[in-house]
Amino acid sequence: MPKNSKVTQREHSNEHVTESVADLLALEEPVDYKQSVLNVAGESGGKQKAAEEELDAEDRPAWNSKLQYILAQIGFSVGLGNIWRFPYLCQKNGGGAYLVPYLVLLIIIGIPLFFLELAVGQRIRRGSIGVWHYVCPRLGGIGFSSCIVCLFVGLYYNVIIGWSIFYFFKSFQYPLPWSECPVIRNGTMAVVEAECEKSSATTYFWYREALDISNSISESGGLNWKMTLCLLVAWSIVGMAVVKGIQSSGKVMYFSSLFPYVVLACFLVRGLLLRGAIDGILHMFTPKLDKMLDPQVWREAATQVFFALGLGFGGVIAFSSYNKQDNNCHFDAALVSFINFFTSVLATLVVFAVLGFKANIMNEKCVVENAEKILGYLNSNVLSRDLIPPHVNFSHLTTKDYAEMYNVIRTVKEDKFSALGLDPCLLEDELDKSVQGTGLAFIAFTEAMTHFPASPFWSVMFFLMLINLGLGSMIGTMAGITTPIIDTFKVPKEMFTVGCCVFAFFVGLLFVQRSGNYFVTMFDDYSATLPLTVIVILENIAVAWIYGTKKFMQELTEMLGFQPYRFYFYMWKFVSPLCMAVLTTASIIQLGVTPPGYSAWIKEEAAERYLYFPNWAMALLITLIIVATLPMPVVFILRHFHLLSDGSNTLSVSYKKGRMMKDISNLEENDETRFILSKVPSEAPSPMPTHRSYLGPGSTSPLETSGNPNGRYGSGYLLATTPESEL
């Protein structure tokens, strides 16, 4: 183009870009092309939306501070599972030996994938649907599956918050209502409730007073009105916390994320002062090395890593999308992962300290009860007094004295010993009694707190901590649902959020039936695990193998201002996908070998019994898994065979000086493309991606092409053959 042409003269001017696309191209107003970015090309829908987000970044809500964002990520990742699932897995899988597979998998799977989700959310600034549609439109179904999994988890997770609310309000009385069995009075007769007498006061209160549970999942039993009311309160709290997006939830996080650590610190100090606390902690850290080679232990450790960091849910991506693009998400990934692991270990120390105290109490109770049996046998001459060591004093019987007496009697009465019904009363047996999930919080821990001085205070603090832990996770779970839907479909934020809470409450009534606890088990243990694993695998594949690890690392370098460790390259490319493929295979095999089931509480026996899910429940479970995973293959097939548009028929015209973008969609014959492309439609340039995000190290930005004086205007503009006179 001649140096004295109008276009060349205007290129070197210092005046600002005009607002109209037509005016820009017709050169009716002065334009400073050196300070603008012009993109003219056909784009896929996902990349077009990502371009909109980058250009309109100032319109997206943002965190008030880095601290608020970190607390939000911590509140989402640190949840109820850190308090009861991690300690249970430690107790079940070899104590300190379990920490080895957990740490290994946290390093090679957890932190790299957590960093990956933080990075894509921050870079593309969209929810999970928009992010994965941008990275690979054919895998856009990942985002929809994440939303469905979040819905499944949120449905039952808020029920657990409702349980905590019920116990919280019941804690404001002394003595605690679960400290003693109820007494039934019949005239002058007073009889202890049989179900409670056969089990324990805390077990009876949990199953009968709180849940009023049925004998099986097939027995609905109707709604539990107390838990229905608590569920309504729980959804009201969550709704108020998230209705304004991060403007409201961010403020809640200051309390909901920090308060649990205050309570845990108080419980740790109090627990360490309890008699027998050291026994529990030593039991935890005594490793059973044979467990380290058990594949089941590694599978459970990997599942715990996924749930602990919130991988695949979309909440991590949603929170990260409200960050500035120069935020150091590399540091955030390591920090949040470390705090999450630290919280799990801290909670495990607290739990084992308290359980060590409880084990000593129960062991002493066992000694007293069996000593009374021995006295009865002595008085009835079933046992000879010669069997009792002379230094044994029944009024002050120690566990050591009882153990000595027990061994003598067992040796002498070897043939008839089983008929005596004596228990060994070993502390190790009490410590080995593993209580899973809700049973750990609502049975074992509550029973231990009844022996605390000022037990109502500790009970109030404990259940308030559970409510806040659950609330932080629910805020992230709701963000995993609302953020991608609002970003993609532009629905009103407040109305959609309230609608989600109302819908979830009514669907959640399934979990507050008398059989509701069994449905919680179904959703918690089975419905989300396999879909989440598949989601995380496809996320890894989408970035590392389809988009390209080298390009992704280059984009991270440009975004962060430094190159992340090479360690992440190899983890994303090779190690993490391989480990997750093995995990998925193991999960499917485990599901086939061991039929899914649940622990049912049988009222007549006052005991738990493991039952398999009936056929209709298995059908429901399979349906849940299919519904959660179906969007991924459906979107892939529809887009592969061009049955679903990916937005390739749209044209994005954008330039970045006044943060303006004009979209021309469904182009008509007489629209502005005549000015942009050419007078003849056949001369239009071939579509090509024009967004500057995620250009590989070997790629050249069409906006920065050198060697051509007009190259900076973009390839689409270069191919336009409109003569200068027509401009």
UniProtKB/TrEMBL annotation:
InterPro entries for the chain: Na/ntran_symport (IPR000175), Neutral_aa_SLC6 (IPR002438), SNS_sf (IPR037272)
Region feature Disordered, mapped onto this chain: 680-727
Cellular localization per UniProt: Membrane
Residues annotated for Na(+) binding in this entry: G75, V78, N82, N340, L469, S473
Any GO CC annotation of this UniProt entry: plasma membrane
Secretion signal, residue range per the UniProt entry: none
Example of a GO MF term: metal ion binding
Biased composition (Polar residues): 698-709
Keywords: Glycoprotein, Membrane, Metal-binding, Sodium, Symport, Transmembrane, Transmembrane helix, Transport
SUPFAM superfamilies, per the entry: SNF-like
Protein's GO biological process: alanine transport; brain development; glycine transport; L-leucine transport; proline transport; sodium ion transmembrane transport
Transmembrane segments: 69-87, 99-120, 141-169, 225-246, 258-278, 301-322, 334-355, 457-483, 495-514, 526-547, 567-593, 613-638
Membrane topology reported for the UniProt record: Multi-pass membrane protein
Matches recorded under NCBIfam families: Na_transp (NF037979)
Similarity comment: family membership: Belongs to the sodium:neurotransmitter symporter (SNF) (TC 2.A.22) family.
Protein name (record): Transporter
Species of origin: Cavia porcellus
Gene: SLC6A17
